[in-house]
Design brief:
alpha+beta; conserved putative lor/sdh protein from methanococcus maripaludis s2 fold; Elongation Factor Tu (Ef-tu), domain 3; six-stranded antiparallel barrel; four-stranded antiparallel sheet; 25 strands; disordered N terminus
Length: 443
């Protein structure tokens, strides 16, 4: 309680004066009201929040679709032995590049070298027999004997012809004529026999020549087979490509009918990819008469990077898979640096359409609100308006707007989380960050 003020009245007597209760209440109120009025005058008006916007402009854009894909080698070759033998050496490093004709394995060649020598000897023997048969020694001997018999027959006839007039003139005895006649007939019979013998020897000689020639050709073929077996004892790369590991070590036995190959070689340039499309996609693209069938393919690897070389569709299967309802397509990509290997997974990007006058908004500008896609736009009075939209294919980091927006609309890209419809904002131009990946995406 405040101390009383002491004064003196007219009679000179002291008196106590108390403060006024009303004044004590009024003073604090006056002071508070003055402070409040002063604060209201000093509080600044809240500024409009800044947002970044992009103005929609129609443009022609290609539409792409992505499909899961896997690489494979079209001409994968299994290296197998053609002859049986033990591996003496193998002359490659697993995972290295080999060229066609490069030596990979060498078997123990000694058995095959011996077989070649034996076959060569048989061939030379058959050649000698053939040469002897071709000389026709027996036929020449028979022909000589026939010629001698024919000469004797001529002499016998001459003797007979000389004796006939002499016997008629009684200049020679009839006995001499009979002897000449018998000698002539004997020589005629001998000539006939030798002529038949010549025919028989000629036939026999021809048969012998043919048989000996057949043996010579068989021996030649056996020699060639032995030489091939010797050649097959050295296994070379049938194609160029990257070779795998050796499945049989040095000293191991290899057989032509073995279940597993010695190793495999995969050609890496070109590299092939297989991917599957749905029946709806197939019918849609076929109806357009162009699209993916004659366009370029892009391969996106597992790390998200674009493969630098473009590919094309070369093959497709002849029927849909009834279990999945898809059709397998196969594309071919140049792979000169052999960076892509068979069995890798990735995505194939295919151009499937060309959209005219499309409106593209950044993906970050589209929000989901109770199952509805919405964007925030800035009107002419810089107030926020909420718009429901329907998006289509993805183009890079943006969406194609199918319905809900018009060209010239200003779309809020950044800052939409701190504004509400009807609120005033300060629009700033949006600058997209440089794209690190491809410029197009799939559905």
């Amino acid at each position: 309680m405040s101390p009383a003020l002491r004064t003196r009245n007219r009679s000179g007597r002291a008196s106590r004066i108390r403060p006024c209760a009303g004044f004590g209440i009024l003073a604090p109120c006056v002071l508070w009201w003055g402070c409040a009025a002063s604060g209201q005058r000093q509080l600044p008006v809240e500024a409009a929040p800044p947002v970044t916007v992009v103005e929609l402009e129609p443009s022609d854009v290609p539409i792409y679709a992505d499909f899961a894909a896997q690489t494979f080698a079209r001409n994968l070759v299994e290296v197998r032995a053609r002859v049986e033998g033990y591996i003496d050496r193998w002359l490659f490093r697993p995972g290295s590049e080999v060229t066609a004709g490069q030596v990979l394995y060498i078997l123990d060649l000694r058995p095959y070298e011996a077989a070649v020598e034996q076959a060569r000897g048989n061939f030379h023997q058959s050649e000698a027999d053939l040469e002897f048969a071709k000389r026709q020694v027996s036929l020449l001997r028979a022909q000589a004997e026939l010629a001698s018999a024919q000469a004797n027959l001529v002499k016998a006839r001459q003797d007979y012809e000389r004796l006939v007039p002499m016997v008629q003139a009684d200049a020679a005895s009839k006995q001499d004529l009979d002897a000449a006649t018998a000698a002539m007939k004997a020589n005629e019979a001998n000539v006939n026999a030798l002529e038949a013998n010549v025919d028989q020897v000629r036939l026999t000689t021809r048969t012998q020549i043919d048989a000996t020639q057949g043996k010579a050709e068989s021996a030649k073929a056996a020699l060639r087979a032995a030489e091939l077996n010797l050649q097959y004892g050295t296994l070379v790369a049938p194609v160029s490509g990257r070779i795998g590991d050796s499945l049989i070590p040095a000293g191991g036995l290899v057989m032509p009918n073995a279940a597993q190959p010695l190793t495999t070689i995969v050609p890496l340039d070109p590299i092939w990819v297989r991917f599957k499309v749905t029946e709806a996609d197939y019918l849609s693209w076929s109806a357009k008469g162009q699209g993916m069938w004659h366009g370029e393919l892009r391969l996106i690897l597992a790390d998200g990077c674009d493969f630098p070389w473009k590919g094309r569709i070369d093959d497709s299967l002849n029927q849909f898979d009834p279990k999945t309802g898809t059709l397998e397509l196969q594309g071919r990509f140049p792979n000169p640096q052999h960076t892509v290997l068979p069995g890798q997974f990735g995505r194939v990007r295919v151009r499937v359409d060309q959209r005219k006058d499309a409106l593209i908004v950044p993906q970050r500008a589209v929000q989901q609100l109770q199952g509805i896609q919405v964007v925030y736009t800035v009107g002419a009075d810089n107030r926020v308006v909420q718009e429901a939209v329907s998006t289509g294919p993805r183009i890079g980091d943006g969406w194609v707007i199918e319905r809900g927006l018009q060209p010239g609309s200003r779309i809020i890209v950044e800052g939409q989380l701190k504004v509400r419809p009807g609120e005033s904002v300060k629009p700033l131009p949006y600058r997209a960050a440089p794209a690190s990946g491809g410029t197009a995406g799939g559905n």
